[in-house]
Amino acid sequence: MIDFNNKGFFKLKQNNEYAERVTALLLEGETVVDAYKSMRDGVVFTNKRIIAVNVQGITGSKKDFTSLPYKNIVAYSVETSGTFDLDSELEIYFSALGKVKFEFTGKTSIIEISQLISRHIFG
């Protein structure tokens, strides 16, 4: 399981590489909405869940996939980018898991991600 409390874990930039890597894990009717990548790790938002990918080892051939269903979200917080601080953040609170934090850099669809989560929570 990924250690989401490690602040430096995710610094993500929009990139479709991980959308392709999780294709085999998708359920029938599940589609990728957006995908992001850090140096080695990534996160994919689908229409049903969030899939966090932690690349492990020196060669990167070992990967940990953590599935975070939207139905288990109890609250979330979004911090948009500003004029000088171009990073944005997403904090999600899951029942039984606790807080998961994602940090985004560059162009990020943080508002669209927020709307996606809201549709599942309040929907």
Automatic annotation (TrEMBL):
This is PH domain-containing protein. Residues 14-120 form the Bacterial Pleckstrin homology domain. InterPro entries: PHb, PHb_sf. CDD domains: PH-like_bacteria (cd13225). It comes from Pseudomonas abietaniphila.
